[in-house]
Amino acid sequence: MNTIPTVLEAAPGTALTLKPDYFVLTDGTAKTVPSLLGDRALPDASKVKVFIDHETPCGSEAHAEWQKQLIRFATERGCELFNGYGTNYQLMLEKVVKPGQVVAHCGDYGSVYGACGVLAVKLSPEALAEAILNGEISMSAPEKLHLRLEGALKAPSCAKDAAIAALGLLGDTTGKLVLVSGDVPEGSEKLAFFQLLSLSGCDAALEEDSCDWPTAVLKLDEVVPMVAGPNDFRLTVPAAELKEIPVTSVFIGGCSQGRIEDLRAAAAVIKGRKVQRKVRTLVAFASTDVYIQAANEGLIAQFMDAGALVMNQGCSACYAHSQGLVDAKDTVLSAGSRACPNCNGEGDAPTMLCSAATAMESAIAGYVCPAAN
Predict the structure, then answer these.
(1) Which residue in 87, 177, 212, 246 has the most C-beta neighbors within 10 A?
(2) How far is CA 63 from CA 26, 34, 55, 230, 345, in A?
């Protein structure tokens, strides 16, 4: 039964009981769940999806132990295991979920599920373990916040730029459900837009055209290439205004801008040029399927010819426990999802978010620079 209408119709604060269709465990956010479950039987192992995606390949013995526990848990309990096939969000969207379903997880970017009509519910590892055993979640209906999109994006702007602009409009959405209506982008652009909304604090977003009174309106035809940060999504500014800011580390990929359309956009910027030698540029892939397609299209050769480092599929430098580590003297420009202190290593390096095209253009220029039309 589709429970999403119940959530949409319920007044804020109404007690709800949801029965998730799937429970997501990853080595980055839910690695303690197997120990919390112990030897207790799983009512339905087919609903539990296990992902090794945050640190692939693993770069520390401590994290390797967490991964081994998850792998043993999945194989012994009969749960489907995705070991190094890409980011959990992309794989769930590619291969598992269907519109109207509910996913329980511990991740930070559940809003991306809304692009496919799926409701994500973020839980603590302890609450997720209990939900797996009970098969249900008790929660209060969230307050709804309505964002209306009007018009159409104009090149070189993309949905990632629109999402960054939306963050400045929405403010703090913690504990709320963001409803998006109007001229919503399609395909990969829609995923890119919804994915970043969680940075405003919300755990979930949905497309809902029946909203009559928008909280905020974003005119897409006025969106320009944007940058968020450093280290604070509320600091949003057109990329063209930051040309005096040099960058030393650039990342393109992960669950935010690691889809094939994003990689094509980044490759189109290169035009035979090279990235600056002083700028370490990493490119990763959202999934194995994307990796193979990029190779078949010759995109990987273009990245390597330009001087970029091509990484494996997964979270890569966006998680940065073993790839793309920086220190406090670096300035990071990322087409990923994270712009927070210490998200790229122990040093408090300034980290800014942008689109894949802006990231590649900036790697070539050596400073923050939007791609041309």
Answers:
(1) 87
(2) 12, 14, 8, 28, 15
192/254 Cα distance (integer angstroms): 11
- For residue 125, how far is the Cα from the chain centroid? 19
Dihedral sign (CA 167, 169, 172, 178)? negative
Domains of the chain: residue spans and CATH: 15-140 (3.30.499.10), 143-223 (3.40.1060.10), 228-365 (3.30.499.10)
- Strand 176-182 to 204-207 pairing: parallel
Task: Give the residues across from 218 on adjacent strands.
Answer: 149
d(CA 318, CA 323): 9
Question: Rounded mean pLDDT of 293-309?
Answer: 98
Report phi then psi at 263, rounded to 5: -70, -35
pLDDT at 21 over 90: yes
pTM > 0.85 = yes
Rg (CA), the chain: 20
For residue 53, the number of C-alpha atoms closer than 13 Å in the C-beta half-sphere is: 30
Please give the Cα distance from 165 to 350 (Å, whole number): 19
pLDDT in the model for residue 346: 58
| Total residue length of the chain | 373
Half-sphere exposure of 150 (CA within 13 A, CB side): 7
Ramachandran region, residue 313 (left: φ > 0; alpha: ψ -120 to 50; beta: rest): beta
Query: DSSP secondary-structure letter at 16?
Result: E
CB of 195 closer than 8 Å to CB of 337 = yes
